[in-house]
Write a structure and sequence with these properties.
Layout lengths: L1 H6 L5 H20 L7 H6 L5 H6 L6 H4 L7 H22 L1 H22 L9 H14 L6 H20 L8 H17 L11 H24 L1
Helix pairs in contact: 2-6, 6-7, 7-8, 7-10, 7-11, 8-9, 8-10, 10-11
Amino acid sequence: MTQFKSIFDKDYPVTSGILLLTGAVFLALQFFRFGEATTSSAIYDFGGLLGLLIKADNSQLWRLLSAIFVHIGWEHFLFNGLAIYFLGRQVESLFGSSKFALLYLLSGFMGNAFVLVLTPDVIVAGASTSIFGILASFAVLRFFVHNHSVQSLGRSCMILLILNILTAPLMPNISLVGHIGGAVGGAICAVFIPIEGEEGIFSTNQRRLALFAYLLLFLALVWRGSTF
């Protein structure tokens, strides 16, 4: 029980849950597909996203969710895992657990919806869509909040966001489309998902408009990507 508590931090239940689920999927992939865990077929079988197959079978749209928790190789898994651990704990403490979970998932959904439409012939997986959404949300919030900690984190997130987007073309295995889509989703979410203690920085109408914009863009992308 003590060992479990050291892995699952009750102060950060969503961050811990994401890490446990992501780790479980990755270890299962290594165990059941030993020696071929980075192949396209293995990644797809464990929940990776391939737009062309979703167009052929719309029942596979659940992969917009599952792909967030699948990783391609140890480097990919460890890099994203560390980002989730350190960034997730800060964000969860600022947003609250339920709103952090919503931000994480909605950013990932939007990133994968961009992939579905713009790079349907590429198999994609990983938490980077969600991570870029978190970075973008704080890059936006830094201009509106009064909390100095959020402003400082926002500046750091903006620098990381810009550097990663600029260097992504140099890394052929990185889905720039997914990263940009996740960032777009996170930036919109920053308006309609209120941060703790800063609920008044946007009006009710602004929040409703941002939510409508997110839903309209997401549904339009999914419709476009799954029907044409």
